[in-house]
User: Fold Z-ring associated protein G from Alitibacter langaaensis DSM 22999.
Amino acid sequence: MQHWTTEMWQIAGFGFVAGAIISYLLLRLTKGSVKKQAQTETELQQAKQQIEKQQKLLEKHFAESADLFKVLAQDYQKIYRHLAKSSDELLPNAQKTLFLQSFMNSDKSTAETSTNEPPRDYKEGSSGLFKAEH
Assistant:
C-alpha cells in the first residue's frame, strides 16, 4: 500500500468539499423546480375539476331551458287553439278566418311551410364576396 502525502490528502479534501458544494447546489436548484412542478400539477387538477363542474352546470342549464321552452311552446299552442275556437264561436259570420285551422288541429309546435325554395339571401345567387377578381 502506498503512503499518502499531504498534497494527496489536500486534493482529496478539496474534491470532497467541492463535491459536497456541487451536490448541495444541485439539490437546492432541483428541489425548487420539484416544488413548482407539484404546485403546477395541483393547479392543473383544480382547473380540470372546475371545467368539469362548469360543463355539468351548463348541461343542466340547457336541459332545463329546453324543457321550459317545450312547456312554453305547448302553452302557446293552447292559447292559439283557444283563440281560434273562440273566434269561430264568437264571430261566426266573419268572412275571413283569423286563425289557421290546420295549425289548430296539428300537434306540432311550429307551423311548417312546404316550399322547396332556397333561403331568400341565396335565391339570386352568391353575393360575390368570395369570387376571384379578374
Notes: The CA atoms of residues 120 and 126 lie 11 Å apart.
